[in-house]
Amino acid sequence: MRTIHLINDLTCVGGPAITVPQFCNALAAADVDVELFTIARGPVDSSQFRFRYREFPSSQVLRQLNISGPMHDALRAAGHEPLVMHSHGLWSMPGVYPTWVARRQKNVRTVMAPHGALAPFAFRWRWWRKAPFWWAAQRKALRSFHALHSTGPGETRDLRQLGLKQPIIVVPNVVPIPDKWRDPPDSSRPRRALFLGRLHPIKGLDTLIKAWRLVQERFPDWELELVGPEDLGGYQQQLAQLASELGVQRLIFSGPALNGARDAAYNRADLFVLPSHSENFGLVVGEALAHGVPAIACKGSPWQRLESQGCGWWVEHGENTIATALCEAMSHSDSELRAKGALGREWVSREFSMPRVAQLTREAYAWLLGGGTPPECVTLSGEAT
Fold first, then answer.
1. What is the DSSP string of 282-326?
2. Residue 185 included in any domain
3. What is the pLDDT of residues 121-180, one digit of tens each?
4. Same domain for 197 and 168
5. What is the spatial distance between Cα 199 and Cα 195, in angstroms, rounded to a whole number?
6. How confident is the model over 328-332, as a mean pLDDT?
7. Structural domain tally of the chain?
8. By the number of CB atoms within 10 A of the CB, which of 16, 27, 262, 311 ranks highest?
9. Residue 185 has pLDDT above 80, yes or no
């Protein structure tokens, strides 16, 4: 079984630049022939890739659209044999080219993974920049893919609400399970609530800071750490200014965490918080659980099973609701939080492992290429989600 995956950029910090190579590694480990195409944007550490990887130049005209004749040519050359072309992301030509190839080469089946770009909040964000490409190319291409790839029920609903009728492959992202998790208890340091991710308005960090102000006096032995790169110029300064105006205490901005620093951030945390307005998956919640850290996530993310699995809280986005969850979580003893974290680690090990993600995806690809009865991970138009 041969597949080509396409992604706009692998030089970004976080998001698909992390999840797509993990997904490709899982497939390659399950004996799927995997090749990843991307636009050349800068150095990429491919040392952990178990698959073939190709970079392509792009035109400097309308650079953000990633127009690449060489990429399109390579896709056309590959399409003479049965294969799946799986695009990861919208708003540029790697999210269009596979549909052009599939029009002429009937051996090709195409899949689009929007990675949350079609959630209502994300779809509306800076719409004025997206609208020209949406009407010129993306809308038609999106409706031409043979299938869509969703990472959970929430994203599936978003796709159906846009009127998209294709089959939807519902397969989560891979959550890597580290061997080392959670540092031993250390009474000499403050207990820590952690956010890890891009510093961007969609992440709801202003709301988290307002919620922290409501609980900080009750929990003087706790601190809040925000870890991640600034994804919008001046946004960290805006957050710092907000915290200063509100009199927020024990708030730490730690900057980006790459490679081992990411694991270290989870391992020194006692609680994880994801206050996002919108997340198609929210890998950081899975990563926190894999490190044995219980989590609070807002309902813009698909982590509703945090509560039924006994490893966290799933709440409405708002300073009062987040503050209530923080109070409940931070009232737990260290041993109680560790017990919740252990349940979370068991859950993600069971349901988000590389072998399980690869098995579900293989079944979906085999159905796309060969027909027959759709596997359980495929939702057809009109089915309940």
1. -HHHHHHHHTT--EEEETTSS-THHHHTTSEEEE-SSHHHHHHHH
2. no
3. 889 888 999 999 999 999 999 999 999 999 988 899 999 999 999 999 999 999 999 987
4. no
5. 10
6. 98
7. 2
8. 311
9. no
d(CA 37, CA 148): 19
Token reading at 122 = 């994300």
Q: For residue range 309-328, what is the model confidence (pLDDT) as tens digits?
A: 999 999 999 999 999 999 99
Residue 325 CB: number of other CB atoms within 10 A?
23
Domain range enclosing 26 = 2-174+353-379
Let me know whether 233 and 111 are in one domain.
Answer: no
Cβ distance 93 to 5 under 8 Å? no
Examine the domain organization and report whether 338 and 206 are in the same domain. yes
Beta strand extents in 123-238 (DSSP E only): 147-150, 168-170, 191-196, 222-227
CATH number at residue 195: 3.40.50.2000
Residue type, 87: S
The partner residues of 147 in beta bridges, in order of sequence, read 111
pLDDT-based confidence at residue 230 (cuts at 50, 70, 90): confident
pTM: 0.85
User: Would 384 be classed as within a structural domain?
Assistant: no
